[in-house]
Amino acid sequence: MNSTNPSTEADNSSVDPLETDLHADALEAIADETAADSNDFGGQSSDSTAELRCRLDEAEKEVLRSRAELENARKRLQRDAEQQVRYANLPLVRDLLDVIDNLNRAVGAAASESGSAQVLSDGVKLVARQFTDVLARYACKPIESVGKTFDPNIHEAIAQMPSPSVPAGSVAQEVAIGYTLHDRVIRPSQVIVSTGPA
User: Fold this and answer.
1) To the nearest whole number, what is the mean pLDDT of the chain?
2) pTM metric for this prediction
């Protein structure tokens, strides 16, 4: 005699096949939506990556352009600095050309038969004065030495000699004129220093 459990029969009879199909359909729909969302997110991620890559490429190009411009500016500044150093003395040389012209005129006058010794002397003095004026215009001035106390910073002693009129330790005679440029000695005066009366 087969006996069946009434509760088991009730449980089996309570499971509706239609409800099972609905659950399966719902699970499939959720799976499809999840897959679609995943694909959409992946697409956005791919787009973002491409955009970031594009911006990175543009930034790299901008950096390269900036480096090239900086290098060109550096070379241009270096070239300008070299030109300034090379032609820094151009105004001085241009002014000295007038002095050379006058000196050549004095030499020409001395070579002619009509030129006298006095005219030649006056011409050379004029050129020397003009030369000194040009140097002074560029802050190059002669050092005053005769009668001054010997100073090793601006004087170069080449000899000593007794002098009744110049006290000992002072410059008795100037052999070569010294010059300063602004506050710097560019050539010391070559002098003979007095030892006082003999």
Assistant:
1) 81
2) 0.56
